[in-house]
Amino acid sequence: MSMPAIKADATTVAIPTASPTAAAPVVTMTPKQAPRAEKYIKMAKEAAVRVVPPLIVLALLMLFWELVCRRTGSTLPPPSRVFKETKELIFDPFFDRGGIDKGLFWHLSASLQRVAFGYSIAAVVGIGLGTLVGQSVWAMRGLDPLFQVLRTIPPLAWLPLSLAAFRDGQPSAIFVIFITSVWPIIINTAVGIRNIPQDYRNVAAVVQLNPLEFFSKIMIPAAAPYIFTGLRIGIGLSWLAIVAAEMLIGGVGIGFFIWDAWNSSHISEIILALFYVGIIGFVLDRLIAGLAKIVTRGTALN
Amino acid sequence: MHAYLKLDHIDKTFTRGNATTEVLKDINLTIDKGEYVSIIGHSGCGKSTLLNIVAGLTDTTQGCVLLENREVNSPGPDRAVVFQNHSLLPWLTVYENVRLGVDKVFASTKTRAERDAWVMHNLNLVQMAHAKDKRPSEVSGGMKQRVGIARALAMEPKVLLLDEPFGALDALTRAHLQDSVMALHQKLGNTILMITHDVDEAVLLSDRIVMMTNGPSARIGEVLEVPLARPRKRLELATNAGYLKCRQRVLEFLYERHRFVEAA
Question: How much is the average pLDDT of A70-78?
Fold first, then answer.
């Protein structure tokens, strides 16, 4: 008889233990709000980890540069003098006094327009030719050796020829951009097309996609990671080529701005221009990389 | 009465340079409408080549494939394939993968809304409607294979070709999916040709099992009828005398009379 009594006792003992567990969710509620602030702190920390080291290195380099170039008789200006001499250009990039006497914004935008033209043509032609070479064995046999030779020609070597052909600076510069950036796009697209798994081709065959559908629905998405590698190399090369080409063709453009600054011994202006060229090159590269990330999000995962 | 699907004296020889390998030799097989036929054999015996020939993805050297008395020699949605490695397009969602085939097959016969409903119907058949907006990389191996089956079914094929559809799955998922395929076959009455190297799978699912000899020059060694009533229950069959006898026959064929010789 005493046995069940003990059991009943045990159950009554169990009840008070249940109330702490009921209180437990309340305890978990409070940290639910805390992570929000913690998340921002975490984000700030992550950002700091990425931003602070390059800033420190930059500051140290500036200091070093300042110390080296400060003494009299130095051939290059120190950062403080660069800033003093280019203040007008930095704070008023939009002035336009006719001819080539324009703000840096106009020079950069002229260069970017040429790159946009040449690069767009290169992207279309490159992806088209790359697909052809990747898909057809005979096209590869016929064209690949030609591409391998042509792609080694330095961009500026094309400039005199294109000036002779177009008899104008603008199309010649665009052609140089095109011919510089088209090769990596062709070659990478071709590799991407060649690497399309047989499975995808079988799927397309069973579903009976026509060549145009096969191109847009299978080839381009499947080869997208490769194509974007080519596009990213291409944009870098075209930005490299434009500055050199513009030095020779003259007119409005960041390349000629640098050349003009050199001719008038405005070394500070050259340094400022180089800074802008670097930043824009970086932004262009990030732009294509970001685009690649969006477009290939499905493909890259598998 | 004529056969629904007929493989007529099929030979297949692969030639690379001067070396020629005869893979398949004089394959004759007739399959009735609604029949579930498995092809079993050791690896390298040319099972997959045979399936690819039926699918039209590979040409025959001699002989032909007849479907409803018409020769078929190029791939098409009337012989939809469920590939071993699912072969879903990774940049499309589950829904879009099925829709791709549906849009082509029913371009002129169904409206957009009907095609959408048909895709969802087929995803429901394989219980994958809940994941319709996921990408293949976001669902499990078994789920991918379900989507592969839905894609094939959605094309309303005359013959459904399964190329080791459960080969890459773990045992539990495989059993679950086998049950699903059996249920679908029961419900839709498809004609199915399946490649497998799993004896239990072959006996459980098939009406007939085609056993192939070892390559090169693989032939059909024996065709076994599986006289088990449908619907079949995995657990009940485990002790069923008829099931065990069929299993025994296949095992004897594969491991006694046509033992797999290494480096053959």
Answer: 86
Question: Are B154 and B118 in contact, with CB atoms under 8 Å apart?
Answer: yes
d(CA A226, CA A296): 10
First to last CA, chain A: 68
Q: How confident is the model at residue B173 (pLDDT cuts 50, 70, 90)?
A: confident
Q: Helix or strand or coil: residue B19?
A: strand
**Distances from the Cα of A281 to the Cα of A119, A200, A232, angstroms:** 14, 36, 11
At position B142, the amino acid (one-letter code) is: G
d(CA A155, CA A245): 8
Return the residue in B48, B58, B91 with the most chain A beta carbons within 10 A, the one to mutate for interface testing. Answer: B91
Q: How far is CA B39 from CA A300, B45, B58, B193, in A?
A: 36, 11, 17, 8
Angle at A279 between CA A277 and CA A280, to 5 degrees: 65
The mean pLDDT value for B107-119 works out to: 92
Touching check for A202 and chain B: CB below 8 Å?
yes
Give bridge partners of residue B5 from the DSSP assignment: B31, B67
Please check the confidence at residue A7 and state whether its pLDDT lies above 60.
Answer: no
8 A C-beta contact, residue B70 and residue B143: no
Q: Give all strands (DSSP E) within chain B, no chain letters.
A: 5-16, 19-31, 36-40, 62-67, 70-71, 81-82, 159-163, 191-196, 208-212, 220-225
What integer is the mean pLDDT of A151-171?
92
Enumerate the residues of chain A whose CB falls inside 8 A of the CB of residue B100.
207, 217
- Of residues A241, A131, A142, A240, the one with CA closest to residue A191: A131
What does the pLDDT look like over A237-292, one tens digit per residue? 999 999 999 998 888 899 999 999 999 999 999 999 999 999 999 999 999 999 99
| CA–CA dist A11, B252 (Å, integer) | 62
How many helices (H) and strands (E) in chain A? 12, 0
What is the pTM for the complete model shown?
0.79
Tokens representing B85 are: 């490695």
In the predicted structure, residue A1 carries a pLDDT above the cut 80: no
CB contact under 8 A, A298 and B76: no
Cα–Cα nearest to B249, from B228, B213, B225: B225
- DSSP state letters, B102-130: HHHHTTTTS-HHHHHHHHHHHHHHTT-GG
* pLDDT of amino acid A4: 46
Chain A residues within 8 A of B136 when measuring between CB atoms: 302
Confidence of residue B84 (pLDDT cuts 50, 70, 90): confident
CA distance linking residue B84 with residue B177, whole number of Å: 13
CB contact under 8 A, B83 and A302: no
